[in-house]
């Protein structure tokens, strides 16, 4: 303690008057626990309610509750339920405006059972967006589908499903993107079969001169 700059002030044994503030708080806690026990409450519940009331009550010196001093905000109590929340109307308008801005560039997707689609494949490299061919077999929610991929049944959101425009069952199509924003891209942006032609590397035609080292000239 001395190394950290902490200095203890000890009182005399058997003389609680030397630490009156702490003794007073102990008496307040004991009184609150006794009242709670008389009402048939459990120790953990009674202590939690007392501490919550104590920490949410403004102090007579600071006029601010201990919780507000610590958290920089007021705790929500049952008394707050007596007052209507004036922020509900403005919050609703704000949420509606956010929704309109978010849905401005969205496109409605229409799928039906037995559609041949491409679904997100999370089995391999998570840093790449990979798609696997599948068939829709059942709708299990407003935006969720059951997709049959080979002999397995996957669950995918509509944002993880793309329409397949060719009939051949290609196993995998990889789009090199590293973020989840690829789910919101246009359907026609990346679904073309991978090019199988190998690229020919172009070598430099620059004439290289031999290197003259100083040690060779000595």
Automatic annotation (TrEMBL):
Q: Where is the composition biased (Basic residues)?
A: 200-211
**Family annotation (InterPro entries):** Integrase_cat-core (IPR001584), Retrovirus_Pol_polyprotein (IPR050951), RNaseH-like_sf (IPR012337), RNaseH_sf (IPR036397)
The UniProt annotation puts the region (Disordered) at: 181-211
Report biased composition (Low complexity) as residue ranges.
Answer: 189-198
Tell me the ranges covered by the Integrase catalytic domain, including all copies. 1-74
Q: A GO biological process this protein is involved in? A: DNA integration
Q: GO molecular-function annotation terms?
A: nucleic acid binding
From the Swiss-Prot or TrEMBL record, give the protein name. Answer: Integrase catalytic domain-containing protein
Organism from which the protein derives: Rotaria socialis
């Amino acid at each position: 303690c001395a190394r950290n700059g902490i200095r203890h002030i000890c009182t005399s044994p058997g003389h609680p008057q030397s630490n009156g503030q702490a003794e007073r708080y102990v008496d307040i806690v004991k009184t609150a626990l006794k009242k709670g026990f008389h009402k048939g409450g459990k120790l953990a519940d009674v202590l939690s309610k007392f501490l919550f009331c104590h920490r949410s009550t403004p102090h007579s010196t600071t006029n601010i509750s201990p919780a507000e001093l610590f958290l920089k905000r007021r705790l929500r109590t049952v008394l707050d339920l007596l007052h209507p929340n004036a922020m509900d109307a403005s919050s609703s308008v704000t949420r509606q405006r956010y929704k309109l801005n978010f849905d401005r560039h969205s496109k409605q997707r229409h799928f039906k059972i037995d559609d041949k689609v491409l679904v997100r494949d999370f089995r391999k490299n998570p840093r790449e967006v990979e798609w696997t061919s599948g068939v829709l077999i059942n709708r299990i929610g407003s935006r969720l589908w059951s997709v049959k991929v080979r002999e397995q049944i996957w669950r995918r959101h509509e944002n993880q499903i793309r329409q397949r425009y060719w009939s051949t069952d290609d196993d995998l199509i990889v789009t090199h993107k590293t973020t989840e924003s690829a789910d919101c891209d246009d359907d026609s942006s990346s679904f073309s079969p991978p090019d199988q032609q190998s690229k020919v590397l172009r070598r430099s035609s620059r004439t290289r001169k031999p290197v003259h080292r100083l040690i060779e000239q000595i």
